[in-house]
Design a protein that fits this description.
Elements: H1 10-39, H2 44-65, H3 75-92, E1 94-96, E2 99-104, E3 109-110, H4 112-130, H5 138-158, H6 162-179, H7 183-202, H8 205-215, H9 226-237, H10 263-295, H11 300-324, H12 342-360
Antiparallel strand pairs: 1-2, 2-3
Helix pairs in contact: 1-2, 1-10, 2-12, 3-4, 3-5, 4-5, 4-6, 4-11, 4-12, 5-6, 6-11, 9-10, 10-11, 11-12
Length: 367
């Protein structure tokens, strides 16, 4: 069960620790005002985030030592449990701002979509590695797994959580592509997804308003364009070196979700272009090293699992940073390691533990 040979990828490990450290500092800086006003404690949010970071690190160190092959028999049970949780959240989940994404367990709020992401990656990796020859057959190989991915994304969409649904779908398709589907099948999936995404966006008025705000935020600056405008003001006012840690003006109730979805704007405002570029660089490092780990994994399952985890984390970062800088429409997805959120942070760190275990068994360690 435990891996005793090989060293973990120290570059990935260092990048994770640096991102986590930046996240703890920025959560405190971004949330201190709202923590004091809403909870009479400037440290309210950072104490919770630090607690989840501690638990996440324990999970990461543990999973770094556990042979990733133990997750093979857990793929189907994990998938079924994630379906159950996604169904439960729609029934008993807390309604927050019109969305049901969290199950209140008393001592913490569980976000099932975070569990569903890793469960989907593991199941897709196992499916693609076991059915590599059949994967290129439409009906007996590709369609069954696509149906599972679509149903999982649909449940997340119903919450609604459009950004996470897109992230789950893109990650699964990336794993299937790495697993060996034809290039024609891949482009066919992309072509099919375009009208589907358009339909899903156009059928909900609030999503269309977000798209229109992305195109021209100044057409409705006090409503749909508010988030993007305030985010751009935060990023732009930081300049090269930033206003200084803790000196953000946008966190004084100007920028919504400034400690969660839009925390990267606070990074840009307080730490400037250099600080924001440093965060982007660390995610690029994770992406490059994650691909390297995948290429040197001892088997196809390890390769696809590493690809899935890398895409899952880095694509989410791409979406969040793209939204914050006005390059993408608002999706409401957190920035891994940085944004406030216990379930997200814990599952991300746990995923990094699995990735690091794959790196410990890398063929590069045998050279």
């Amino acid at each position: 069960m435990f891996t005793t040979e090989g060293k973990p990828d120290l570059v990935v490990f260092t990048a994770v620790i640096l991102l986590l450290s930046i996240g703890i500092v920025m959560v405190f800086s971004a949330s201190s005002v709202i923590g004091l006003s809403d909870h009479r404690d400037s440290f309210h949010f950072v104490k919770r985030q630090a607690g989840w970071a501690f638990l996440g690190l324990i999970a990461m160190f543990f999973l770094m030592r556990v042979d990733y092959h133990v997750f093979k028999p857990l793929a189907l049970p994990g998938l079924l449990i994630s379906y159950l949780l996604l169904g439960l959240v729609l029934i008993i989940g807390d309604d927050i701002s019109g969305a049901r994404r969290w199950i209140n367990l008393g001592f913490f709020n569980l976000q099932p979509s975070e569990i569903a992401k890793l469960a989907m990656v593991n199941f897709t990796a196992l499916y693609a590695s076991n059915k590599r020859e059949k994967l290129r057959r439409l009906f007996s190989g590709l369609l069954p797994i696509l149906a599972i991915v679509a149903s999982k994304a649909l449940l997340i969409m119903i919450e609604p959580d459009f950004g996470t649904a897109i992230a789950v779908t893109v990650t699964a398709v990336a794993v299937l592509f790495a697993g060996g589907i034809h290039l024609g099948q891949f482009f066919g999936l992309v072509i099919v997804m375009v009208p589907v995404v358009y339909r899903l966006v156009s059928q909900e008025s609030y999503r269309m308003r977000r798209v229109m705000a992305f195109v021209d935020p100044w057409s409705d600056p006090s409503d749909t364009g508010w988030n993007i405008i305030q985010s751009l003001l935060a990023v732009g006012s930081g300049g090269l070196l930033g206003l200084g840690l803790g000196a953000s003006r946008q966190k004084f109730s100007y920028l919504p979700e400034h400690h969660t979805d839009f925390i990267f704007a606070i990074v840009g405002e307080e730490l400037g272009f250099l600080g924001a570029a440093g965060v982007v660089f660390l995610f690029l490092v994770l992406a490059v090293r994650g691909v390297r780990i995948a290429l040197h994994a001892p088997d196809l399952y390890g390769t696809l699992l590493a690809v899935g985890i890398t895409i899952m984390v880095c694509f989410q970062a791409f979406l969040n940073i793209g939204v914050t800088t006005g390059l993408l429409p608002v999706t409401g997805i957190p920035l891994p390691f940085i944004s406030y959120g216990g379930s997200s942070l814990f599952m991300t760190l746990a995923s990094m533990g699995i990735l690091l275990n794959i790196s410990r068994q890398s063929r590069a360690n045998e050279a």
